[in-house]
Design a protein that fits this description.
By secondary structure, the protein is mainly α. The chain is built from seven helices and two strands, in the order E-E-H-H-H-H-H-H-H.
């Protein structure tokens, strides 16, 4: 598919950039599915910060003697963050632009599994239980405003 733009011809690429004929990942085998992880530093950093902040909040609650359900912590850390890590860093993330079936599995993990598990982790409840009264009121006021529903 091409077009004319002031005498210059352009053409849409047929394949994504990292799946061109010169740079394709190895064939998808069971071994590659298990061990073909692709480490993205920024994503790993984001996941570590996300899980670290959550665990810091849980630890603060425990330090003052308040209980926090282990199931919520596991849902956030292993369930939500783990699902994101598998969807983006494993072979699923490596082959997401090569195989449509893998791309669709990635969509399901990122849009249907991870958000539910993260919601079970109740991060806003954890935040509210850790904040002093005035910041807690500000967060509640923000949550009840029109902005989060946009």
């Amino acid at each position: 598919m091409g077009g004319d733009n002031g005498g210059m011809r352009w053409q849409l690429p047929a394949l994504p950039r990292h799946a061109n004929p010169d740079n394709q990942p190895p064939p998808l085998t069971p071994e590659q599915l298990l061990w073909g992880w692709n480490w993205d530093g920024w994503l790993v950093l984001g996941l570590v910060v996300m899980v670290g902040a959550y665990l810091w909040g849980v630890r603060r609650l425990a330090a003052r003697g308040d209980a926090w359900p282990l199931t919520r912590t596991l849902a956030w850390c292993l369930g939500g963050a783990g699902t994101i890590a598998v969807a983006r860093l494993s072979a699923i993330g490596t082959y997401d632009t090569v195989l449509l079936s893998v791309h669709m599995v990635q969509h399901m993990l990122l849009t249907m599994i991870a958000p539910v598990l993260m919601a079970v982790g109740a991060p806003i409840t954890l935040l509210l239980r850790n904040l002093p009264a005035d910041p807690r009121r500000a967060v509640v006021r923000f949550l009840h405003s029109w902005f989060p529903s946009c």
